[in-house]
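fyi for ur records
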Amino acid sequence: MTKYLDEYIPKSKQISRQVQSDDQKLKFNNILTCMAVVVVPVGGQTMTGVHLTVASTKNTKEAEAELAQALQELQTAAGAGPLDAYIICSWRFHKAGGLGKGLKKLARAV
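which gave:
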């Protein structure tokens, strides 16, 4: 079943605003200036994704805390073991924050 993801909001009760996993399809809603981050266990098929906004990838303390929480939730949802990460975005909107470094710690390949 397709999982729909909207902008991530920490501790949100709306499932579409949380980290989600599916082995068939993840659909990221309204991703013009936002970012889709997906991790997949090496040799696995289950995708785990989060929909991040420009606000969550800025170089500020609040954004860094939100990003750290999102990456931790990705790691927890994807499970133990090595991961591959995929980023779908316009990188110029997100390159100033710590996402690149965070994903390199989380995944074996980005």
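The first strand starts at residue 3 and ends at 5. thats all i got for now
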